[in-house]
Each structure stands twice: as structure tokens, then as C-alpha cells.
Structure prediction request, 176 residues.
Amino acid sequence: MRAFYFDNIPGDQRLLHDSGNPVSDDILKSIGLLYWHIPTNQQNQIDTVAEERNYKNRDTITITKQGLGDSYEAKLKSFYEEHMHEDEEIRYILEGSGFFDVREHPTDSWIRCQLDAGDLLVLPAGIYHRFTLDENNMIKALRLFKDEPKWTPINRGDLTDVNPYRVDYLKSIAVN
Prediction:
């Protein structure tokens, strides 16, 4: 995984949008992101991480223009809406590539995380983020869950700022 500040230049969200300013591992840790690189030929290591972090369920998602058909553009647009979840978001990239953009706190700057096959990313509950494919227009990812699968995005707004999961997230990074 490679992380850098998003350049905020208007245009296709699937472009790199690299500002030229890299983001250090320390900054990623300070906002609660966890990251591992586990080669796809060593997926048994995913079971170890899942056990250590108490992930009980999993499924696989594939996002392609061919697979989503007419709903492709609308689905990509919905993934790119800034939102949070009330559970960790865990993704292990099996094939393809894409971007998770996360909000740095307290600056509110976008940090773009470029993910490729073998990258495992954990976004904490309550962090504002968005997702998009890159120009390859294909990703296959393993999704891991602590309990029953939850995919409900809560789009950013006045109510999310007081959501207990958002408040807990902000408290958890305040010590960093």
C-alpha cells in the first residue's frame, strides 16, 4: 500500500490524484489505520489476523463494469460518497486495485491509500472515508467482519458528527 495526500484537483476519481506529498506510517497509525501486506499465495496468514482481531465472518466482492452492468457508474458514485461505518471496514485485496480515501483528523485533509493485490487494510469504525476503483476498473476483495456482515454507510452530515461511533473514534485517536 502506498499513502499520499490527495491533490484535490477536479477530475476522474479513478485517477491517481497524487499531490506528491507522501503520508508516513506514523500518520496512518495516528488516525487508527492498520495495514499489512500478505502475498496472495500466503492467504492462510489472513486466518491468523482474523483470529487475532476476532473477525468471525467473511465474503468476497468483485467490482467490475462487466459484473455490475448498467448500475456500474451509480454504484461507483455511491462508494465515493464520504461516509463512515459503525464497524471496522476490513478489506484484503485478492486481485485488481483501487483507492480508499480517508480523512485525516484534525486537518480534514484527504489521504489516498492505493491498494493492490496482497494489501490488507483496516479502517476503524467512525472514520470518514470513501472508495473508488482506479483506471483498471477492477477489484476483487475479501471482506472480513467481527459479527454479521454490515455494509451500511452513514453519509457524512450533522448527525454523523454526534454519532457515538464517530465520537468514540475521535476519543480513540486523541491519545495519539
